[in-house]
Amino acid sequence: MLRDVMGKTFQLLGYTIQYGCIAHCAFEYLGGIVMCSGPSMEPTIQNSDIVFSENLSRHFYCIQKGDIVIAKSPNDPKSNVCKRVIGLEGDKVCTSSPSDLLKRHCYVPKGHVWLEGDNLRNSTDSRCYGAVPYGLIRGRICFKIWPLNDFGFLRASPNGHRFLDD
User: Fold this and answer.
1) Among 128, 126, 129, 124, which Cα is nearest to 115's?
2) Catalytic residue among 65, 83, 123, 157
3) Which of 51, 64, 139, 147 could form a disulfide with 55 if both were Cys (CB 3.0 to 4.6 A apart)?
4) Interior/surface letters 72-105, b for 16+ CB within 10 angstroms, e for the rest
5) What is the DSSP letter of 28?
6) Model confidence at 110: pLDDT above 90
7) Cβ contact 115:71 at 8 Å
């Protein structure tokens, strides 16, 4: 009797570990569902929108300008930020706010990206904390899941003029 109970317990434990490893790999390498909070990506992503984030792009270095990514916050490693990639390593980016009369520029260092929210007037982004190491990127947002009336691929940046081609 005790032998049967121990056998079933170890069998259940084995299955739990196997499925836990599969789930971990799926969420770490394939992607997952994310709820975005805060106003920094409005109007593209509203507060409490639910999106699907895929993680393969970051592993294969396929992140491009214009992509919306989930990254670890450079200011608070316990939280994530949702921002648009404005510049990749070597790109010239505008570092000033839209209201500044004098425009300042810099180049994105090797191994970094420049992230900004679509809501430039209400976003804490690379203009505040500088270029973000590529290693902090967790995934690329593919499409919006919720609300259902907004289901689908995300629209282009309302700040397309911020992309410099120098």
Assistant:
1) 126
2) 83
3) 139
4) bebeeeeebbbbbbbbbeebebbbeeeeeeeeee
5) I
6) yes
7) yes
pLDDT of residue 44: 86
Q: Write the pLDDT tens digit of every residue in 17-30.
A: 888 888 777 777 77
Q: Which of 49, 41, 30 is nearest to 138 (CA)?
A: 30
Return the structure tokens found at 11: 């069998």
Angle (nearest 5°) at CA 56 between 52 and 61:
125
End-to-end Cα, the chain, rounded Å:
76
Q: What's the rounded Cα separation, in Å, for the pair 101 and 59?
A: 39
CB 50 within 8 A of CB 146: yes
Catalytic choice (40, 53, 123, 157): 40
CA 73 to CA 51: how far, in whole Å?
A: 18
Report the alpha-carbon distance of residue 143 to residue 54 in Å, rounded: 10
Residues 25 and 100: their CA atoms lie apart, in Å, by 45
Between the alpha carbon of residue 119 and those of residues 38, 40, 41, the distances in Å are 10, 5, 5
Specify burial of residue 131 (Cβ count, 10 A radius: 0-12, 13-18, 19+): buried
Question: Among this protein's residues, is 40 annotated catalytic?
Answer: yes
The token pair at 38 is 């805060």
d(CA 87, CA 95): 11
Report the distance separating Cα 13 and Cα 1, nearest Å: 18
